Automatic annotation (TrEMBL):
GO annotation, biological process: sulfide oxidation, using sulfide:quinone oxidoreductase
Gene Ontology MF annotations: FAD binding; hydrolase activity; quinone binding; sulfide:quinone oxidoreductase activity
Domain Beta-lactamase hydrolase-like protein phosphatase-like: 6-109
Cofactor(s) demanded: FAD
Domain FAD/NAD(P)-binding: 150-267
Record keywords: FAD, Flavoprotein, Oxidoreductase, Quinone, Transit peptide
Organism for this UniProt entry: Meridianimarinicoccus aquatilis
Name of the protein: TIGR01244 family phosphatase
Amino acid sequence: MDPKPISPELSVSPQIAPEDIAQLAADGYRAIICNRPDGEGADQPTFDEIEAAAKAAGLEARYLPITQGKVSDEDAAAFDRLSKELPGPVLAYCRSGMRSATLWSLGAARTETPATILSATKAAGYDMSGVVRRIVNGGRTPTDTGDATHDIVIVGGGAAGVAVAASLKARKPGANIAIIDPADVHYYQPGWTMVGGGIFDAKSTAKTMGSLIPTGVHWIKAAVAAFEPDANAVILDGCRVVKYKRLIVCPGLKLDWHGVEGLVDTLGKNGVTSNYRYDLAPYTWELVKGLKSGRALFTQPPMPIKCAGAPQKAMYLSGDHWHRNGRLKNIDISFHNAGGVLFGVKDYVPALMDYVNKYRADLNFFNTLIAVDGSAKTATFKVAKPDTDPTEVKVEFDMMHVCPPQTAPDFIRVSPLADAAGWVDVDQATLRHKTYENVWSLGDVTNAPNAKTAAAARKQAPVVAENVVADMRGKAPVAQYDGYGSCPLTVERGKIVLAEFGYGGTLLPSFPKWLVDGTKPTRAAWLLKERILPPIYWQAMLRGKEWMAKPEALSAADT
């Protein structure tokens, strides 16, 4: 007997025996549902035996037998009603627990999201991929068979999705390509640091999605609910099915604002802000301009996150403004980082430390933000230093810039495409899925060990395009990604430390040292960030013009 909880009120289990009932009662269960028909196995007890033992232990028992592999919509509805009528918690069982888990999933589909259901059953050890379409369809068997079919389907219309679509169109103008994304607006997210520093206007970082989808590419304006890679299908909300010959997955990542207690309730007020949201970046600048004295907190969650330098970029630009206006002597800057180092590539740390010292910033490592009380203006951090017991500390603030915890999107995390940590499982060189050969991924959602930046997506898009086209021609992968990422660290208004690196922290500078020495703050790097990179993004990267992003040939050692 091994009950697995899949909701607060229901657990599922393989076949139980009458002698297990007393322990179930002791564990707090109050009712049992049998979903296994009598006589299915030579060694199984009858329901009458189970019911008698349940009554003796003070538990209720109900018989809802389901033939293996034949869970009807009516069965699911009956199970849902029964599990809610019985006193909980309830244990449901069959031969392995699979039928009971399926019944719960289809019943729960009326009120819960597909990701929530798939996550709960996956955690209990049950794979619901066989009924995912029914789950997405609210627990009912779909009747629509009008599937759309495309040569290439791209999930995600952000930087990675539009760029790879444009790169594919440049190589295969006649290819039948579709992008799936429900958003109306596309954002240039690297610009939000500059908005929070008073350099860019927020509106300059946004364009309509329709204006950026490459000509000839179909735009399916819908959200993805699930994947069926064995059937070459993407399931949309509402249970529409999109079939593909090749799939490219790049929906970005999820900002988990609810991962910090109290944060959602106070964002945008009480001095709490974040450059990780379009609508909040202008509030960052308002707070910076308005702060005359007090304590300013800047937080960074556990990795991975998009643009790992962004939390400290906000700190540097804020400190620079206060320095220039003579207020810095009255403001205490405190940086709380869940990690143990200021920046992951050591070559850039000396230059950054010069600015940490200039702004008199207090560095606090192994500090993870876990709660915010906006009205009281206090932040709670979990401190987990190596070889010490974790503690909690409360810190008062007058202004706080928060970088939220980040995860793979829910529909990715519970899909067959994900690794154990929830990220799309790819070969780090070819960006091809390790299991499904007609699936590729790029951008923030992959498990490749590179920095999650727009610059990384700019280099990845041509690699994926080259390899997809090679596959269409019946060839093996031809291009490789070296892990390139770029993080222009805005250490002061007018100067940037241009961090460029690849896998393993290898420095990968784009310019000669005499022009831009990436390990030092330079005016040239600032001009690149302020004036050159935005038009490169809008007019080159998203248009399939691969300026300084030509794919590198796959070496013989990697083939």
